[in-house]
Amino acid sequence: MNTDKSVLKLKRLSFGGIEFSEFPIFMGIVNVTPDSFSDGGKYFESSAAIRHGLELAESGAGIIDVGGESTRPNSEPIAVEEELRRVVEVIAGIRKADNKIPISVDTNKTAVAKEAINAGANIINDVFSAEDNGMIQLLRETGSAICIMHRQGNPTTMQDNPVYDDVVSEVWDYLSCRRNELFDAGIDSDCIAVDPGLGFGKTSEHNWQLVENMERFLSINSPLLVGHSRKRFLAAKFNNREEGTKIVTKILIKKGVNIIRVHEIHKEYITL
Q1: What does the mean pLDDT of the chain come to?
Q2: Exposure pattern of 44-63 as b/e (b: 16+ CB <10 Å)?
C-alpha cells in the first residue's frame, strides 16, 4: 500500500463537528426514491420521509442520510431538478423539527448538495467522491463535511464484471489518495470520512474480503463509514438480509468502524 501522507496530524478523530468514541455512530437511511433496492417507494412522499428520519433519530441514529437518487446496481441517474424536488423539502422538514442532529445528503451533484446545505444539511455523502465540477469549491465555501467512497464503474454498469488483483489494497490506496487530494485542495481533515463502498463494483467475495479486513482502513486516519445494510452479498450467507445486516453490524462494531449506515436502528446495537 502507498502510505505517503497516510497519517495527517489530527488532534482528535472527528467529522463535521462529531466527536467519536469507541462506540460507532449510526447513520440512518432515508431513501426518498421509488426504486431503491430495499425500501424504494416506502418513503417517497415528503411527509413519510420526514417522519421516518425523525423516527430514526429517536431510535438512536446520530446522522440522518437523505437520498433522492437510487445508486443500486443497474440504476439510471435522474435529473437535478427531480432530485432537488425529492430531497430539499425532506431535509428542511427534518431540520425544522430537530435543529441539532447532523443531516447528510446522499448525492454526487454539486447543485443538489448546495441546495441541501441551504435547507439544513451539513454533510455530503458522495459515492463519486467529489468528482463533480464545483463540489470541492462548495466544500471550501461552506465548510461542510464529505464522505468519499470507493467504487468501480458507475451504478449502471458497476456489477457487470468487477475485477481486482487485491481488493483491500486497491480500495485502501484509492481512499487514502483521494483523501489526500481533498486535503491538498483545502478541505479540512476533520471534514473528510472514507467509505470502502461495499456493493459498488464488487463481487460478493470482494465484499466479504473487505468486511474481514475492515480494520485496515482505520490506518487512513479518517473516520471510517461502512454501508452494508440489506445488501445482496449478505443473502448468500444468511437466512435473510436483515439477519445478515445485524450480524455484520456487530462485526463492524468490533472492528472499530466509526459510522455504520443502516436502514433500521435495532436496540441491540445500542446496548452492545
Answers
A1: 90
A2: bebeebbbbbbebbeeebbb
Which pTM value belongs to this model? 0.90
Distances from the Cα of 203 to the Cα of 52, 195, 210, 241, 251, angstroms: 31, 17, 11, 16, 20
According to DSSP, the residues that pair with 234 across neighbouring strands are none
pLDDT tens readout for residues 159-188: 778 899 999 999 999 999 999 999 999 999
98, with CB counted inside 10 A (0-12, 13-18, 19+), is: middle
Parallel, antiparallel, or unpaired for β 14-15 and 18-19? antiparallel
Q: Is residue 57's pLDDT more than 50?
A: yes
In 3D space, the residue among 196, 201, 223, 200 whose CA is nearest the CA of residue 212 turns out to be 196
Q: Which residue of the set 95, 179, 255, 261 is catalytic?
A: 261
- C-alpha grid cell for residue 15? 467529522
- pLDDT at residue 5, rounded to an integer: 40
Determine the pLDDT at residue 272.
60
Provide the pLDDT confidence category of residue 41 given band limits of 50, 70 and 90.
Answer: low
**Residues 15, 189: Cα–Cα separation, whole Å:** 8
Q: Whose CA is closest to 83, among 57, 130, 115?
A: 115
Domains assigned to the chain: 23-270 (3.20.20.20)
Active site residue 12: no
**Residues ≥6 apart with Cβ < 8 Å to 248:** 211, 228, 234
pLDDT of res. 2: 44
Sign for the pseudo-dihedral over CA of 55, 60, 64, 69? negative
Q: Catalytic residue at 114?
A: no
Catalytic residue among 231, 246, 250, 254: 231
